[in-house]
Amino acid sequence: MIILKTGLELSILLEKITCNGTIGYVPTMGALHEGHLSLIKKCKSESTFTVCSIFVNPTQFNDKSDFEKYPVKLEEDIALLIQAGCDILFLPNVKELYPDGTTLETYNLGALETIWEGKYRPGHFQGVCQVVQRLLSIIKPNKLFMGQKDYQQCMIIQQLIHLIDFKTELVICSTIREASGLAMSSRNVRLSLKAKTAAVAIFDSMQYVKDNLSSNELENIKAKVTSNLMINEFSSIDYIAICNALTLESLTKYDSSVPVVVMIAAFIDGVRLIDNMLISH
Ligand code: AMP
């Protein structure tokens, strides 16, 4: 695996190899787990060259302490990427991606920016777009692989690709979970064993919504989920969203012709977890 730290070196190398095949790209913030590795695997199966980046992007953290506590495990990550057969690892530093500082351009992301994650993490999606636009401009991938785990982020990136008129195809990959149902996340390493066990309540709650949606008692379902999370060690809940999966508008009633996504964001053991489940009828 080739490791490069500057955009210039990377774009020179990629220009040479694009005539021989397609480039697939997996952006990450490191502290890699099976979820990330599943993206690498998918990327390898659909591209000639697989590029991964590790960059903990400061502009997307609305909470300074979350940024400071973000796990860094570079040596382990490199070993995992080599084992997974990644071809190129891009490891830029902040100065490389933000040479003019981090007061930056903004994007018109419409309502998507102010609801759910956007509401509870002001500025987060602007930061995500700032970094992804920079990375896409350097790498110019044919395909970009991202996880459904961050459902709203996938919708934002689809919009960004459209806004900046890029030809990259977004491939959304399934969420990888622990055997318990807990979605894998770099932040899980900050959970105590007890909290990690209790955190399964998010998955169980989404399953509960799925099983009970057709009863049409949406408010009762949300109340049940709230109490299930609270009795399982969660300290606060940002949202329990039962939405139209295409627009993220909150549903007021069940309609079998509308695709549904359930999204939950809640705190346990001082860690904010998010997860979602698509419900097909
Ligand atoms: P992150 O390092 O958290 O920024 O995540 C990098 C990419 O991995 C994003 O596209 C995430 O959606 C994806 N990802 C994170 N966790 C998982 C998971 N459990 N399953 C699948 N993809 C994931």
Plain-language structure description:
It is a single chain. The chain is α/β, with parallel strands linked by helices and 281 residues long. The protein folds into 2 domains: 172 residues, HUPs (Rossmann fold, 3-Layer(aba) Sandwich); 89 residues, Pantoate-beta-alanine ligase, C-terminal domain (Pantoate--beta-alanine Ligase, Chain: A,domain 2, 2-Layer Sandwich), CATH 3.30.1300. Helix content is 39%, strand content 20%. The chain contains 11 helices and 9 strands. The strands form 2 sheets. The protein has a 6-stranded parallel sheet, sandwiched between helices. Strands 7-8-9 form a 3-stranded antiparallel sheet, with helices on one face. Helix 7 crosses helix 8 and helix 10 runs antiparallel to helix 11. It is globular. The mean pLDDT is 96. The chain binds adenosine monophosphate (AMP).
Helical/strand content category: alpha/beta
Order of strands, widest sheet: 1-4-3-2-5-6
Counting structural domains, the number is 2
Percent of sequence in beta strands: 15-25%
The CATH architecture of the largest domain comes to: 3-Layer(aba) Sandwich
Give the names of the bound compounds: adenosine monophosphate
Level of helix content?
25-40%
Count of alpha and pi helical runs = 11
Work out the radius of gyration.
19 Å
Mean pLDDT: 96
Rough shape?
globular
CATH-level-4 superfamily name of the largest domain: HUPs
